[in-house]
Amino acid sequence: MGRHDQAETVLSDLLARESEPSNRRLVLELERVRVRFATGPDPMTLEEIVDLATTTLTDYDATGDEAGMAQALFMLGEVSRRRGRITEMEEIVRRELGHAGRSDSGREQLGARRMLATALEIGSKPVSHCIEQCEVLSFWRGKRNAAVLPVLAHLYAMNGQFDRARDMVAHAEVIFKERARARRPLTLLRKRRAEVEILAEDLDSAEDELRQALQLDLDMEIREEASEAAALLARVLFVKGHLDEAAEMADLSRMQAPSQSVAPQALWRSTRALTLAAQDRDEDALRLSEAAVDMVPAGMLNLRADIRIDLGMVLSTLGFREAAQAAANEAIDLYGRKGNLAAASQARSSIAV
Asked: pTM (2 decimals)?
């Protein structure tokens, strides 16, 4: 439901009653970390989360608690994602999926499927392979599950299949609203729809979806999601020529970004650089844009390409046409390696213009 403050209060009360070390206390501590991870994890560090999850995993392994092991691996996978270690994330989540499948926990089974789909999406494996795997992951207990459909929709959009992608997002929305009746998944859904529309070059629809996603994220205090939504909105606004609001969104992204999360830290720098270049702050713009490029690990092909597209726009705004084209060419190569046909086509068009 996105009521993280209330969840924290309930878990703190329960932990106060478990004064002695016990399996139940570990369960509660890990659950509290899961809540805090959504809202931070600052001031809780990723190292602290890894220590707790590793300790919990060892204890669950000793007792044969499959759901508990899946939950601990879920947190370790999330840490790897924030660090940008996507190959490591996929390995962890595949272990998680095995333990979740042997448990009777629907939450862990669905969570593992979504996490594996996300690892495939943001990593280096080609879109065609990711679609094939995510089609399998999207079925759970004989039906389509809404946890994977939005990721699968984004993959189909990368492949240029926009109508199919839109249908999948619409299907997921029906499931979330009619079955789950929870608002937190809706913010992820709106961001996915925005990503589809950006690839389909419908920036007005993307802007509308991102504004709604951002407001939900801020209301629920989900910092990482809020930071990424604000950064994407800043980029859309910049392209549409709304420079002042784009700068505001980039600053909001910076304020919300968890300090140890690669994607939002790179995105706010990259989008803020766009607006600084438009303000003739050449040195600051180049410094931030180049820092964003250096920040993204090699395995995150789409993000590396997106950041280079931003760098190209910064360089173009500053009058460095050849360097801008070189950055765009690097992005096209990365999109091509991922199989992101839609983004590669957009990048080629921008060079032609």
From this structure: 0.94
